[in-house]
Amino acid sequence: MSLRIGDDAPNFKAQTTEGEIDFHQWLGNSWGILYSHPADYTPVCTTELGRTAQLKEDFAKRKTKVLAVSVDDLDSHFGWVKDINETQNCNVDFPIIADTDKNVATLYNMIHPNASTSATVRSVYFISPDKKVQAIITYPASTGRNFTEILRVVDSLKLTAEHNVATPVDWKVGQDVIIPPGVKQEEVESKYPKGHRVIKPYLRYTPQPDK
Which SUPFAM superfamilies match (predicted)? Predict the structure, then answer.
């Protein structure tokens, strides 16, 4: 069974480069990103893990923890981390799961047989503090992930979890957001005190509520 948005994020215990973790316990009250890598010492993954490390402060200010998973063992992970730090000019200090039995990859449907029967695709799961899957992005093994987009999705998910708004195409923090169609026009002024503009009856903008 594949996971879908709104599903419970499966819990698991695993060995990582930062010690053994219980996923739900490790996540605590934070948002989380769980993302997969086909194997250690792969070039695209090396750049992705390096970029994650470089964005440490960006994830921290969003109160978002990052957890990577690869099907190789810990010894391999530790050697790979040295290469990542050297080639990407970073310090990888977030956990990388040693998923040698493919338990996590299977729980999170990261192996797509039509692509490979053994290597994971590049899955990204966005998980809220209540341990629900809130978004999923999946790339083929050949395409590196866009971390600007990953951060943008986190910003949107956090905003829309706290306020009754939606974010439009290419939205960035600080830009206007959309009033959902379910909000009646006569309720708009009281619910969106910063003002609003109507493009069409179903397309209404308001300034970002928390800015």
Answer: Thioredoxin-like
The pLDDT score that the predictor gives to residue 2 is 80
pLDDT in tens, 73-89: 999 999 999 999 999 99
* Region of 125 on the Ramachandran plot (φ > 0 left; ψ -120 to 50 alpha; else beta): beta
How does residue 112 score in pLDDT terms, banded at 50, 70 and 90? low
Measured CA to CA, the distance from residue 52 to residue 68 in angstroms comes to 10
Lowest mean pLDDT among 60-69, 110-119, 148-157: 110-119
d(CA 201, CA 45): 45
Known catalytic residues? 45
Query: Three-state secondary structure along the chain?
Result: CCCCCCCECCCCEEEECCEEEEHHHHHCCCEEEEEEECCCCCHHHHHHHHHHHHCHHHHHHCCEEEEEEECCCHHHHHHHHHHHHHHHCCCCCCCEEECCCCHHHHHCCCCCCCCCCCCCCEEEEEECCCCEEEEEEEECCCCCCCHHHHHHHHHHHHHHHHCCCECCCCCCCCCCEECCCCCCHHHHHHHCCCCCEEEECCEEEECCCCC
Q: φ, ψ for residue 37 (rounded to 5)?
A: -130, 135
Instruction: Let me know: does 188 contact 204? Beta carbons within 8 Å.
Output: yes
Query: What is d(CA 110, CA 58) in angstroms, rounded to the nearest whole number?
Result: 26
The bridge status of strand 197-200 relative to strand 203-206 is antiparallel
